[in-house]
């Protein structure tokens, strides 16, 4: 069965609640699609108003983070139950900004992936190499290590339903996009890694996005590649261009 494309916006730390509602209204008619899943991954404080604002549309809401415990003395954190109750369907896990600025390790991210799945949220699990790693020729070794650690102990049926985002760190927010061949090569490598860890059917089912300066001009070429099932989009998700990316 053909995999359904999924285009997700990662708003990062942008948009106040009132700006968020305005943006959803501006994008409303532009992101309509029968064939692509559309997700807005938004800051925690925007979740409730954005869930309300997308009601009746094809857009689903994602969170940018979650904590690994269910409740208790974890000041400032947000649980999976809170996200689910608010209407969230997806959660970004392991974005390079969280790995780099907040010291999130693969061991910790593995717990986040498991917690999300336990609570019925779909992880958008990010992985990707630095420019230095790419130049050293260890891109695929590094990404295989990330995938194997982040998915350790996760069942095949759950992996089949998740989303993996390949995001070369050197392409995030830099305006430098991986070529479609570079992106395809790594996305295929990730699928091969899943086939080795699980089986061919799981590898065929898992959706793998490319992320890193996706824009209205390069989305079509990237998403046409056989192992690229859509995109995780940062900067361009905050403007009308996001509609062009969804309808690439
Ligand atoms: C991202 O935030 O995951 C991302 C890919 O950002 P950008 O599209 O701005 O490079």
C-alpha geometry: globular
β content, as a range? Answer: 15-25%
Number of helices: 12
Query: What string gives the helices and strands in order?
Result: EHEHEHEHHEHHHEHHEHEH
Strand arrangement within the widest β-sheet reads 1-2-3-4-5-6-7-8
Profile the largest sheet: 8 strands, parallel, barrel
Question: What does the model show?
Answer:
- By secondary structure, the protein is α/β, with parallel strands linked by helices.
- Helices cover 42% and strands 17% of the residues.
- The protein is built from twelve helices and eight strands.
- The protein has helices at residues 17-27, 47-53, 80-86, 96-101, 106-118, 131-136, 139-150, 156-161, 180-197, 200-205, 219-223, 241-246, and strands at 5-10, 36-42, 59-63, 90-93, 122-127, 163-166, 207-211, 230-233.
- It has an eight-stranded parallel beta barrel, surrounded by four helices.
- Helix 1 (17-27) packs parallel to helix 2 and helix 7 (139-150) packs across helix 9 (180-197).
- It binds phosphoenolpyruvate.
């Amino acid at each position: 069965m053909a995999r359904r494309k999924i285009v997700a916006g990662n708003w990062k730390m942008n948009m106040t609640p009132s700006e968020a509602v305005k943006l959803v209204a501006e994008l409303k008619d532009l992101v309509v699609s029968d064939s692509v899943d559309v997700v807005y991954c938004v800051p925690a404080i925007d979740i409730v108003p954005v869930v309300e604002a997308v009601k009746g549309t094809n857009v689903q809401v994602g969170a940018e983070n979650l904590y690994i415990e269910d409740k208790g003395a974890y000041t400032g954190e947000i649980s999976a139950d809170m996200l689910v109750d608010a209407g969230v369907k997806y959660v970004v896990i392991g974005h390079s900004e969280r790995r780099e600025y907040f010291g999130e390790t693969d061991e910790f991210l593995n717990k986040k992936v498991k917690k999300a799945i336990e609570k019925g949220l779909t992880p958008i699990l990010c992985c990707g190499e630095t420019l230095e790693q790419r130049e050293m020729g260890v891109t695929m070794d590094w990404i295989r290590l990330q995938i194997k650690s982040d998915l350790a102990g996760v069942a095949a049926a759950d992996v089949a339903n998740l989303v993996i985002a390949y995001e070369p760190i050197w392409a995030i927010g830099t305006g430098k996009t991986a070529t479609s061949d570079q992106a395809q090569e790594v996305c295929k490598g990730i699928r091969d890694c899943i086939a080795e860890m699980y089986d061919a059917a799981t590898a065929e089912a898992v959706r793998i996005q490319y992320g890193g300066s996706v824009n209205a001009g390069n989305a079509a070429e990237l998403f046409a590649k056989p192992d690229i099932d859509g995109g995780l989009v940062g900067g361009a998700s905050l403007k009308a261009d996001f509609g062009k990316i969804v309808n690439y």
